[in-house]
User: Fold this.
Amino acid sequence: MNDLPPDLSRLRTLETWLALTLDRVRQEIAAVERREAERLRGMEARPPIPDWVIERGLNRESPPVAVHVGGCHMAGKRWKGVPRDIALRALAEGVEPCSHCRPDSELGFLEG
Assistant:
């Protein structure tokens, strides 16, 4: 069974349509490959997750709200990576440890 038209003019029309469609598909493939390459470059350039995080309040002058283990999903958007000694000092000064990631346990911090 032949599903192609029998005359030359319709075959040429079909050929043109297929060539244009193939060109659009190739352009879309190239665009997707560029986006994937950008995504991979972005992942490679991303800075490492800090070991310890201090979550800030609503403005820059407000005191720290909580201490988290780096990468804790509860840290919110206003946080800053800090070294171990700063995280320990914040806990000693009364900043609350996150109840989900338990940085006080991870740091070996004992109250008192």
Notes: The first helix runs from residue 8 to 45.
